[in-house]
Amino acid sequence: QVQLVESGGGSVQTGGSLRLSCAASGDSNIYACMGWFRQAPGKEREGVASVYTGTFRTYYAHYAKGRFAISQVHTKNTVYLQMNNLQPNDTAMYYCAAHMGPCGGTGGDLREGHFEHWGQGIQVTVST
């Protein structure tokens, strides 16, 4: 139905920046909740940020506020995650996800179970 492909990952030094991209293809709703998740070795996958493409309303995990920014370009079917001031704790596999509907609740939804479609993930490594 929907295919998601992440790009833009890699290795950076502490304090550096990366911009992840998520390209969507296939059948999809006009409006969707798009999310970014990450999973570090030995840890559970956690939500980073989400955006509802119908209103551009964004939501962030507390640790991401002020450093990360999610955005989307509807005409390109692409969602971005700008990550600034990266720290070693940000090292993880980052996943793009899509839910064919609104983000949940007034505070958005960063729950893994809310999303039906997932990308393969892309590695982000932050070195000291």
Descriptive notes:
The chain is mostly beta strands and 128 residues long. Helix content is 0%, strand content 50%. Strand 5 and strand 6 form a beta hairpin. The chain is globular, with a radius of gyration of 13 Å.
Properties at a glance:
single chain; mainly beta; 4-stranded antiparallel sheet; 0% helix
Q: Which regions have little confidence, pLDDT < 50, spanning 5+ residues?
A: none
Could you state the order of secondary-structure elements as H and E?
Answer: EEEEEEEEEEE
* Strand residues, percent: over 45%
Helix-residue proportion: under 10%
What's the β-strand tally? 11
Outline, from the CA principal axes?
globular
Please count the helical segments: 0
Radius of gyration: 13 Å
Cα separation of the termini: 40 Å
Main beta sheet strand tally, sense and closure: 7 strands, mixed
Structural classification? mainly beta
* Mean pLDDT over the residues: 93
Topology:
Elements: E1 2-7, E2 10-13, E3 18-26, E4 33-39, E5 46-52, E6 58-60, E7 68-73, E8 78-83, E9 92-99, E10 117-118, E11 122-127
Parallel strand pairs: 2-11
Antiparallel strand pairs: 1-3, 3-8, 4-5, 4-9, 5-6, 7-8, 9-10, 9-11
Task: Summarize the entry for a quick read.
Helices cover 0% and strands 50% of the residues. It is built from no helices and eleven strands. The strands form two sheets. Strands 2, 4, 5, 6, 9, 10 and 11 form a seven-stranded mixed sheet that branches. A four-stranded antiparallel sheet has the order 1-3-8-7, with no helix packed on it.
